[in-house]
Specification:
Length: 134
């Protein structure tokens, strides 16, 4: 019985760690401005971007290039310590930037800019990712 309770406790601890990462989302800065597709293109198109994604179950950072000419987001991502190549389709729909890997449903976010950073923001106004241009 003690082993079962210990195992349940360990599992609960691990799951709480995963949820704590997913829940600890940064706030959108008060001065961040929601931008249009044209403003976003002028800000980030073809430039190297350092990205940190906050709402996944594992920590994700990436070095990416958003290319509107090619319609892609490409680069390398570190997913919980494992390096991966990134190549996603890039579109803009209903005022949101959308990306999707082959065979996946598009993932869309509103874009806000503040200084040298852009914020990908979910419909519930929680920050999905923060990217630094340059």
């Amino acid at each position: 019985m003690r082993k079962i309770l210990s195992s349940i406790g360990a599992l609960a601890f691990l799951l709480s760690g995963i949820n704590a990462y997913a829940v600890d989302l940064p706030a959108l800065p008060a001065g961040a401005k929601k931008v249009t597709l044209e403003e976003f293109k002028a800000f980030a198109d073809g430039k190297h971007v350092k990205v940190e994604i906050f709402d996944l179950e594992k920590p994700v950072t990436a070095d990416l290039v958003w290319s509107w000419k090619k319609g892609t987001i490409t680069g390398k991502a570190n997913v919980d310590g494992k390096m991966m190549d990134v190549k996603s389709k890039l579109t803009f729909k209903d005022g949101k930037a959308c990306s999707n890997a082959k065979g996946e449903k598009p993932n869309c976010h509103s874009i806000y800019i503040d200084g040298d950073k852009f914020y990908e923001v979910r419909d519930d106004m929680k920050v999905h990712a923060v990217s630094t241009v340059g």
